[in-house]
Amino acid sequence: MNIQNSNISEMLIELRNDNSSGANELIAKALEIIKFQLKMVKDPFEDIKEAITDLARDIINSRPSMAPIINTIGFILNNLKTISKNKIKERITKFEDARTARYKALEKNFADFLNLYCKSHCKIMLISYSSTVINFLKKNSNSDLEIYVLESRPLLEGRKTAEILSQFFKTHLIVDAGMGKFIDEIDLVLIGVDSILKDGSIINKIGTFPLAITANAHNIDVYAVTDSYKYNLKSHYNQKILIEEKPIKEIYDKEVRCLKIKIHNYYFDITPSKYIKGFISEYGILSVQEFVDKIQQDLPIEWFKYFLINKNI
């Protein structure tokens, strides 16, 4: 079975180059690639372990910093001695059911958090675009909230966040560098999460780290909104976490003529756990250590050793 089918190659390229979708959308794209591969398998009981593990590695390598994709594949492949089309289809169904259950639990816990934390008029600062945070805020539109959104350079995803939430709440859109000017007006900072490291630090849109520092300096709590599948197994096994540089033309559209100037464009930064008050997740509202401990008990962490032992990714 040829995993370098041209359609799959195109789907992998699309997954790699998608700079606007959130984790849920990227997981869906990864699952579609696996489902497309399964369509080419005629015998539902044939052992396709080699082809599927090669494809899984390609998917992971297309988005090496996306922990939810790694954990999605872990759910599908964990503890399978033989891998057939039928078994993979069954695991995908179970995964999608489990993902729905996690989302519903997180949705309820987010509402409980707002009821507990925002009993009167509450001013919340956000950064960038988190579909999870946005959808949950929309579902709590009866809450007395006022939203401050950092625009989030270089792609300015915060503008989209502000446009959506302004239909439900009084909303302010501010430049990233303006966070300090407005921080004294804020009651709470909520941040989405791209990846959770083993010590509870998080990778998220660049600017999250200075936002968390600024909030802490003004005694404002910072809560991360996420589910357990954003736990980073590369971090768990002490693999290097690569934060890639992106095209410099996004922030500097002139020709670079001077060799002494170096242009840097990163989409993500790492916020140390000490700046995070707690996590709102499918588990409830937990401290950083409680959340990490719970993840390490629940996730099928051991499956990832196969990739580390057989070939680094």
Model description:
There is one protein chain. By secondary structure, this protein is α/β, with parallel strands linked by helices. The chain has helices spanning 6-17, 23-39, 49-62, 67-77, 85-117, 131-139, 157-165, 179-182, 208-217, 233-236, 288-298, 305-310, and strands at 122-127, 145-150, 170-174, 188-191, 195-196, 202-205, 222-225, 268-271, 278-281, 284-286. It contains twelve helices and ten strands. The strands form two sheets. A seven-stranded mixed sheet has the order 3-2-1-4-7-9-10. A hairpin with a 2-residue loop joins strand 9 and strand 10 (284-286). The radius of gyration is 21 Å and the shape is globular.
In short:
With 313 residues, the protein is α/β, with parallel strands linked by helices.
List the helices and strands and how they pair.
Layout lengths: L5 H12 L5 H17 L9 H14 L4 H11 L7 H33 L4 E6 L3 H9 L5 E6 L6 H9 L4 E5 L4 H4 L5 E4 L3 E2 L5 E4 L2 H10 L4 E4 L7 H4 L31 E4 L6 E4 L2 E3 L1 H11 L6 H6 L3
Parallel strand pairs: 1-2, 1-4, 2-3, 4-7, 7-9
Antiparallel strand pairs: 5-6, 6-8, 9-10
Biggest beta sheet summary: 7 strands, mixed
Percent helix, as a range, is: 40-55%
Number of domains: 2
What global shape is seen?
Answer: globular
CATH superfamily of the largest domain: Translation initiation factor eif-2b, domain 2
Strand content: 5-15%
Mean pLDDT: 92
> Low-confidence stretches at least 5 residues in length (pLDDT < 50)?
none
End-to-end CA span: 22 Å
Can you tell me the CATH topology of the largest domain? Answer: Rossmann fold
Strand order of the largest sheet: 3-2-1-4-7-9-10
Assembly type of the chains comes to: single chain
User: Would you list the SSEs in sequence order as H and E?
Assistant: HHHHHEHEHEHEEEHEHEEEHH
CATH class type of the largest domain: Alpha Beta
Number of separate strands: 10
The CATH architecture of the largest domain comes to 3-Layer(aba) Sandwich
If helices are DSSP runs of H or I spanning 4 or more residues, what is the number of helices? 12
Indicate the radius of gyration in whole angstroms. Answer: 21 Å
